[in-house]
Amino acid sequence: MWWWYPLLGAVAGMIAGLFGIGGGLVIVPVLAAAFVLQGVAPEVLMHLAIGTSLATIVVTSLSSARAHHERGAVRLDWLKRLLPGLVVGTGLGVVLASELSGETLRLAFGVFVLLVAAKLGLDLKVGQMAQAPGRVGQFVGGSTVGVISSLFGIGGGTVMVPMLSSWQARMTEAVGTAAAAGFPIALTAALTNIVVGWHAPNLPEHAIGYVHWVAWLGIVLASVPFARLGARLAHALPALLLKRLFALILVIVGLRFLLA
Q: How far apart, in whole angstroms, are the C-alpha atoms of residue 96 and residue 52?
């Protein structure tokens, strides 16, 4: 089924670009469905989908971060202070995920997707702080983003953009800094998933730890160009309609994970 993965990457990239949200929320459920069809053991299915999703973000986050940096939208001062927490939190999140059963991880992902859907669909806003927190606060914030990202296979933008916005960052700065943070999150998570899953039982062929390299290659090759196409289409459609439509898709995905 090697040909299946570029198709999945094209769909994931298109949806991610169209709805302006990290591909992990799309890649994880699509990969999970593909692994079910291939007969991957339920005990490692979600771990493999999440680990592979994070490995794809290593590549896709680089182009996104570079584009935002060229436009001066990355707050390097914040990124440097967030980095230690991001790395520590990401490592802890992967280790925590490895200790959870596949069933627990599936249910947790379903709940997380429904929470994201509620935020998007209801356009919920976070409270504003008078200013950005100090080093300790930024370490805690980075750690929180890292744990959540590595648990659910996302690049962190879903959590980090609202957090940075509450620190009085302009939206362009919040998005750009979150995009740049996706690389250390994904790299740390991918490497840790390889290590903690190295001797996991019931891994399928082409898996190294909790990363399926054939799936990774196919998704990376197709998701980047199709994400650009999706982004172009997004500019031709109403933003509010897109947000609510994606929220509806996430509700369906979340319920599917909870009721499977």
A: 17
